[in-house]
Task: inverse folding
């Protein structure tokens, strides 16, 4: 892990997997934009912060996914960090029960086993109409970029550096990603396009890159997600239940599914693509003997 200077007082912790941006309020106090994984990244992030003599004044989260909020409570306990998140994302990660409700399909025991580091007490709730948030005297602008998660936000530091969270993924990640995740694809596409209109010099992508122009990246991201949707569409060559589609997708994308947890995660990702295909009227759901079966509405678009 290392610290990368972006611009002015805006820096990033490079965890290897992720960029975690931070803004230096002064020589000692920093505001983190997301906090990384609790399991696997905490030790390294904390050591880097300690070695530089930093104190985490606060954390502004882009969204409540486990690799973005995993050290919230750690820094809240250690440094009394103030935590800010959108009202909806804060609710989603506020308790074991809310996480279970959010993810569906997981037992409470499985939530405790896999998502414990997600659970966060949020101090400042950001509402959809809030255009900025003050933390330690610094003003951060908030750009709502929902889609990847229900109330995802992008955050602009006082240096005019945009942290886009998971609204975009880098070219490197596109190369390795079998099935990228978005809670609602069509909404995510609108947020990606919204980012392309911002007139800023520096954009930080969580997984993982720093760009001065994101126009091509936005178009390539949308094309990448649409191409993945097309491959999901293609496997539904006859009326199929969700489980049958999942089996076909696992084969088509060559995904290793060795645990119940992983199967549930992949299923959730795949369902977003199925929802999208229904939304754009390429797939249709119908009830058949008590089972929901999905079928293609047209063949022409895939040829
Ligand atoms: Zn995410």
Result:
């Amino acid at each position: 892990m290392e610290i990368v200077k972006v611009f002015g007082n805006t820096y990033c912790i490079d965890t290897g997997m992720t960029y975690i941006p931070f803004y230096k309020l002064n020589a000692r106090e920093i505001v983190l934009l997301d906090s990384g994984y609790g399991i696997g990244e905490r030790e390294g992030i904390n050591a880097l912060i300690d070695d530089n003599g930093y104190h985490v004044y606060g954390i502004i989260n882009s969204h409540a996914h486990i690799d973005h909020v995993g050290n919230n409570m750690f820094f809240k306990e250690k440094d009394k960090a103030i935590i800010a998140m959108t009202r909806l994302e804060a609710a989603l990660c506020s308790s074991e029960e809310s996480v279970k409700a959010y993810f569906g399909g997981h037992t409470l025991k499985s939530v405790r086993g896999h998502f414990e580091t997600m659970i966060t007490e949020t101090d400042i709730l950001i509402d959809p109409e809030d255009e900025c948030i003050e933390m330690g005297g610094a003003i951060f602008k908030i750009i709502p970029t929902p889609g990847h998660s229900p109330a995802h936000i992008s955050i602009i530091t006082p240096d005019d550096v945009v942290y886009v969270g998971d609204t975009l993924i880098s070219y490197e990640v596109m190369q390795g990603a079998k099935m990228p995740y978005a809670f609602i694809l069509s909404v995510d596409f609108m947020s990606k396009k919204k980012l392309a209109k911002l007139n800023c010099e520096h954009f930080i992508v969580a997984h993982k890159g720093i760009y001065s122009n994101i126009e091509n990246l936005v178009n390539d991201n949308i094309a990448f997600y649409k191409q993945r949707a097309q491959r999901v569409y293609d496997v539904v060559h006859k009326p199929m239940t969700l489980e049958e589609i999942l089996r076909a997708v696992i084969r088509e994308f060559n995904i290793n599914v060795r645990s119940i947890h992983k199967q549930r995660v992949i299923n959730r990702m795949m369902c977003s693509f199925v929802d999208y295909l229904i939304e754009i009227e390429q797939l249709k759901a119908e009830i058949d003997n008590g089972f929901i079966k999905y079928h293609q509405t047209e063949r022409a678009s895939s040829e």
